[in-house]
């Protein structure tokens, strides 16, 4: 069974949280204005539907794909989806005719698909596709697994290698996402070179493309290069640094995307084994250090590479694989029309192993609403959108394409929180109300704790803590919750500075509304 084209193989203890200053951008960070190709007023206002009231479901629309890895859509009026397969082929799906039997592209003779994480990994459609008939592909190349970016000319059925990064020592952590930004530049992610614990110290180095997201201009060549390094890239002119680098400090940024509404960038970076993370960066922010391998998520990584005086940009969302996850699959902000009233402006991601659908939305106060809103099929490797912004996903085994739908489903539970804090201690009382129409007979309440919180005692529940995740079971005497009725439980915890209450709750695997 696939553990995922990116899964974390080993776990290392983390010892300390990032200082609050770590959220500030690196001094070398650059801001590049987007090109403005999203018309003013073209994007609807974000949905006001509470995230726990959302439900994501999928419908399989095609089968027979061989280990699909990515999907993209041309804005040429054809309604097609292009789907990459690990071996080196690109298939075409149309909602009226289904999956075409013959591949659109076949570069299997050039692709090294050895190991679980190598192969044809990414595809991007340029804004001028209708005229140029060009596609951009990211793959690991024969004979040694070098991570490669190529331009494929459909009208000539040939490819041209643009840029290559040696990656021979380990077969994992190849990254592979390709996307054109709102500035018209091509962005490309590469992992840290593989192995465990960043053995090459790639994340914090600027002399290698490993552990980075690059930004290049593929519309022209410069000198001997078949592309140009934009002069406003943050490390152009920095001695010893690769000018192509846009962001650094990444472990395996398997999937990232741009929000067509505001040009911001969302990154799903696969963790070592303790934390999966999502980063959200304002439009045009280059030069930021996202922390790996000094940090994994928000925690200091034991034995990691920390640069004196460096500033690190914190993720906006982390979760522990303890709940069954293994590899975050970064998705997209929904900007389609069909479900705009429900999920407009909401970022959707998943995890390859747990299949949990994560919904994130800025709360307007510097934080993010968050909820679990359903499950994807098993082993999803990529979330993509049609040209008009509707969502599809592909899953590795058994190789299917699935259309994603959203609906409003009011939660059948609500949790109200009362927090009392002193020194390094905090007590949290939870009132769980059954807002549904049927009785709850036996319950399990799951919720995350803030970094550094450790439960020392509890009441009215049988509670266990694993990593930052708490599982609270009924205490027999309160196992039944009648419709409209409530039960209370609570815990005492030590904290290392963050005494905040849990932000989300799942009662018997259903998301609860969160009260005060």
What's the helical proportion of residues? Answer: under 10%
Counting DSSP H or I runs of 4 or more residues, the number of helices is: 2
Mean pLDDT reading = 92
Largest sheet: 5 strands, antiparallel
How big is the Rg?
A: 23 Å
Number of beta-strand segments: 42
Quote the distance from N terminus to C terminus. 43 Å
Spans of at least 5 consecutive residues with low confidence: 1-15, 19-41
What best-fitting shape do the alpha-carbon axes yield?
globular
Given helix and strand content, the structural type is mainly beta
Classify the beta-strand content into a percent band.
35-45%
Describe this structure in words.
By secondary structure, the chain is mainly β. Helices cover 2% and strands 41% of the residues. The protein has two helices and 42 strands. The strands form eleven sheets. Strands 4, 5, 6, 7 and 8 form a five-stranded antiparallel sheet that branches. Strands 35-39-32-31-42 form a five-stranded mixed sheet, with no helix packed on it. The longest helix is centred in the first third of the chain and has 4 residues.
């Amino acid at each position: 069974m696939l553990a995922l084209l990116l899964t974390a193989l080993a776990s290392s203890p983390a010892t300390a949280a990032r200082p609050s200053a770590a959220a500030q951008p690196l001094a070398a960070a650059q801001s590049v204005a987007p090109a403005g190709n999203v018309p003013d007023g073209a994007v609807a206002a974000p949905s006001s539907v509470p995230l726990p009231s959302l439900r994501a479901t999928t419908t399989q629309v095609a089968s027979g794909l061989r280990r699909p890895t990515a999907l993209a859509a041309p804005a040429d009026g054809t309604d097609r989806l292009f789907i990459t397969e690990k071996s080196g082929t690109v298939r075409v799906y149309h909602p009226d005719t289904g999956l075409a039997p013959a591949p659109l592209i076949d570069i299997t003779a050039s692709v090294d698909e050895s190991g679980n994480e190598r192969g044809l990994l990414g595809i991007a459609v340029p804004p001028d596709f209708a005229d140029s008939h060009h596609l951009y592909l990211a793959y690991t190349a024969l004979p040694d697994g070098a991570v490669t970016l190529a331009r494929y000319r459909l009208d000539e059925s040939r490819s041209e290698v643009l840029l290559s990064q040696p990656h021979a020592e380990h077969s994992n952590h190849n990254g592979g996402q390709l996307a054109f930004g709102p500035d018209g530049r091509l962005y490309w992610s590469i992992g840290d070179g593989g192995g465990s614990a960043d053995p090459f110290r790639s994340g914090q180095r600027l002399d290698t493309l490993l552990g980075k997201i690059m930004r290049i201009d593929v519309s022209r060549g410069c000198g001997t290069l078949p592309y140009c390094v934009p002069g406003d890239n943050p490390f152009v002119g920095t001695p010893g640094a690769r000018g192509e680098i846009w962001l650094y400090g990444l472990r395996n940024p398997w999937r990232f995307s741009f929000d067509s509404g505001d040009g911001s960038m969302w990154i799903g970076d696969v963790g070592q084994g303790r934390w999966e993370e999502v980063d959200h960066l304002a439009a045009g922010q280059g030069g930021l250090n996202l922390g790996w391998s000094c940090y994994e998520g928000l925690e200091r990584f034991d034995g990691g590479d920390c640069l004196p005086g460096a500033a690190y940009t914190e993720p906006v969302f982390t979760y522990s694989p303890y709940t069954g996850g293994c590899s975050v699959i970064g998705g997209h902000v929904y900007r389609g029309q069909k479900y705009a009233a429900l999920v407009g402006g909401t970022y959707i991601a998943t995890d390859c192993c747990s299949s949990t659908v994560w919904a994130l939305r800025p709360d307007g106060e510097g934080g993010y609403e968050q909820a679990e809103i359903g499950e994807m099929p098993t082993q999803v490797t990529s979330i993509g959108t049609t040209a008009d912004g509707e969502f599809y996903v592909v899953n590795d085994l058994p190789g299917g394409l699935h259309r994603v739908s959203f609906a409003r489903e009011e939660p059948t539970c609500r949790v109200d929180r009362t927090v009392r804090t002193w020194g390094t201690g905090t007590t949290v009382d939870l009132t769980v109300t059954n807002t549904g129409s049927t009785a709850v007979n036996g319950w399990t309440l799951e919720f995350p704790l803030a970094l550094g919180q450790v439960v020392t005692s509890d009441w009215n529940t049988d509670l266990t803590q694993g990593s930052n995740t708490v599982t609270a079971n009924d205490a027999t005497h309160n196992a039944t919750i009648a419709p409209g009725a409530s039960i209370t439980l609570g815990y005492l915890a030590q904290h290392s500075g963050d005494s905040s209450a849990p932000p989300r709750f799942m009662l018997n695997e259903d998301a609860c509304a969160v009260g005060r």
